[in-house]
From TrEMBL:
Signal peptide location: none
Pfam families reported in the protein's UniProt record: ThiS (PF02597)
Coiled coil spans: none
Name of the protein described by the UniProt record: ThiS family protein
Lineage: superkingdom: Bacteria
InterPro entries for the chain: Beta-grasp_dom_sf (IPR012675), Mopterin_synth/thiamin_S_b (IPR016155), ThiS/MoaD-like (IPR003749)
Amino acid sequence: MTNVVLHYWAGARAAAGVETEVLQAPTIAAAVAAAGAGREDSRLADVLVSCSFLIDGRVLHEQDQQRPLDSDVTVEVLPPFAGGRR
């Protein structure tokens, strides 16, 4: 498994309660799902469904998020009002 660093921005950061967190996961999608499911409060899971995810300024599409990871990665998590999608 690889380390996926989720770097939260704006409302995603507020919902997560942290600026970054590191999860071990085989894909970015698995890391995002684990981040949302790993809390008693569902606010982060609710926010994550409307976020955009970027690596090195490049937007990750659904198929990108499902690809197996072969190295550690940092993912920017942007809710809609911070530049994310709808």
